[in-house]
């Protein structure tokens, strides 16, 4: 749990109110190895930041069980695009954090080290925007929380797409080599699988078929490598190595974790 340098001084935001039209069912509720996909995304993001994590939902949207302490706000203009949801999330945390990592609900392979790397690279820019695999990635990016009023103005003018914001602020664009230049991320997520999103049943099936994270399990006086996406998949109570108390079954595991049997 310590392999990526610890939590960054930032908040987390997960827009979850999309229509999921290509998936055919709400993405927030998709099963991911025994945990709802939204639950996993929120929990992984919570491992990367030391500030609040906020889910932005459509008004009245039903959500699966979320990790303790997760905050929920409503998207002020559903259907306009992701920008109003990002702005609502930034406004909700602006008094407690200077920056936030925004992660879409459908990033099942997100690694805390990826969010940490993007936050580290923001520097004094308003936005740190990964550009990988031929696309810019506004829903896997870091934003200054001070952008909330700017987004409010764009939303009021009917502009809900992130490029309208990027044209009005200082953006640091992060290509694949700059992301992989971090030795920690290069070791834990060399393929940048964190950017794998799932928009269709086929994409979900492909993501589910990928190799499970390799984690170290300390038990009975020996250490062995095991593979699982959640603590519950291990089939026995486990805790963070050096920690106390068993992890909940939905707790997300990622490559590089160290656990111990309890």
Automatic annotation (TrEMBL):
The protein's name in its UniProt record: Molybdenum cofactor guanylyltransferase
Presence of keyword Nucleotidyltransferase: yes
InterPro entries attached to this UniProt entry: MobA-like_NTP_Trfase, Molybde_CF_guanTrfase, Nucleotide-diphossugar_trans
PANTHER family assigned: MOLYBDENUM COFACTOR GUANYLYLTRANSFERASE
Gene3D superfamilies recorded: Spore Coat Polysaccharide Biosynthesis Protein SpsA, Chain A
Record domain MobA-like NTP transferase: where: 12-160
A Pfam match: NTP_transf_3
Keyword terms, alphabetized: Cytoplasm, GTP-binding, Magnesium, Metal-binding, Molybdenum cofactor biosynthesis, Nucleotide-binding, Nucleotidyltransferase, Transferase
Gene Ontology molecular functions: molybdenum cofactor guanylyltransferase activity
Keyword Transferase: yes
E.C. designation(s): 2.7.7.77
Lineage: superkingdom: Bacteria
């Amino acid at each position: 749990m310590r392999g990526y340098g610890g939590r960054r001084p930032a908040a987390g935001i997960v827009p979850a109110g999309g229509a999921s039209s290509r998936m055919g069912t709400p993405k927030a509720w998709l099963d991911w190895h025994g945990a709802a996909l939204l639950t996993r995304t929120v929990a992984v993001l919570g491992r990367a930041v030391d500030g609040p994590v906020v889910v932005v939902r459509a008004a009245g949207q039903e959500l699966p069980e979320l990790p303790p302490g997760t905050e929920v706000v409503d998207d002020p203009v559903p259907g306009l695009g992701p920008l109003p949801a990002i702005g609502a999330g930034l406004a909700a945390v602006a008094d407690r954090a200077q920056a936030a990592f925004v992660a879409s609900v459908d990033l099942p392979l997100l690694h805390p080290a990826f969010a940490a790397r993007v936050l580290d690279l923001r520097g004094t820019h308003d936005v740190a925007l990964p550009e990988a695999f031929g696309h810019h990635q506004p829903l896997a990016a870091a934003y200054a929380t001070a952008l909330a009023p700017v987004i409010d103005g764009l939303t009021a003018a009917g502009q809900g797409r992130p490029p309208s914001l990027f044209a009005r602020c200082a953006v640091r664009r992060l290509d694949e080599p700059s992301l992989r230049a971090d030795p920690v991320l290069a070791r834990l997520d060399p393929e940048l699988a964190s950017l794998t999103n799932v928009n269709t049943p086929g994409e979900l099936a492909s993501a589910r078929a990928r190799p499970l994270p390799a984690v170290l399990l300390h038990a009975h006086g020996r250490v062995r490598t095991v593979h699982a996406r959640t603590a519950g998949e291990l089939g026995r109570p486990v805790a963070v190595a050096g920690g106390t108390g068993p992890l909940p079954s939905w707790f997300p595991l990622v490559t590089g974790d160290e656990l111990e049997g309890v």
